[in-house]
């Protein structure tokens, strides 16, 4: 059945972009990047709350996976709250630096149709 599906697919070749179209797309991608950068800075509190939630979920899952002894598991969960502020600072710096470019590239890949 899979071979039939492959046979029925048509390969469509897209025309190459003109230099004007490439320049236009690059300009629009730069605009999107700047908007995402601005959004990231404006929504700092929201992003930090998202980081908190992801940390809480991730650390519990990691401890449950790695530490099977019940008493050690509870101790590890208690101690996991200590590095949270440090993780939050590091994660925020990473998000501020990388989120706009990563989301811009991801969105660009979604509209390339290749």
* First-last Cα distance: 24 Å
Main beta sheet strand tally, sense and closure: none
- Helical stretch count? 5
Shape annotation: elongated
Beta-strand percentage range: under 5%
What's the pLDDT, averaged over the residues? Answer: 87
H/E series, N to C? HHHHH
What percentage of residues falls in helices of 4 or more residues? over 70%
Structural class: mainly alpha
Descriptive notes:
The protein has 114 residues and is mainly α. The protein has a domain at 45-114. The protein is built from five helices and no strands. It has helices at residues 2-8, 19-42, 44-66, 70-79, 84-110. The two termini are 24 Å apart.
How is this structure best summarized?
By secondary structure, the protein is mainly alpha-helical. The protein is 80% helix and 0% strand.
Which properties best describe this structure?
disordered N terminus, about 110 residues, mainly alpha, elongated
SSE layout:
Layout: H1 2-8, H2 19-42, H3 44-66, H4 70-79, H5 84-110
Helix pairs in contact: 2-5, 3-5
């Amino acid at each position: 059945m899979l071979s039939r599906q492959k046979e029925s697919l048509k390969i469509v070749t897209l025309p190459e972009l003109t230099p004007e179209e490439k320049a236009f797309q690059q300009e629009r991608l730069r605009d999107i990047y700047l908007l995402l950068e601005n959004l990231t800075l404006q929504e700092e509190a929201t992003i930090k709350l998202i980081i908190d939630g992801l940390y809480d979920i991730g650390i519990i899952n990691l401890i449950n996976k790695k530490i099977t002894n019940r008493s050690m598991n509870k101790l590890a969960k208690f101690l996991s709250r200590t590095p949270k502020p440090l993780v939050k600072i590091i994660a925020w710096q990473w998000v501020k630096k990388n989120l706009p470019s990563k989301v811009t590239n991801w969105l660009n890949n979604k509209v390339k149709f290749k």
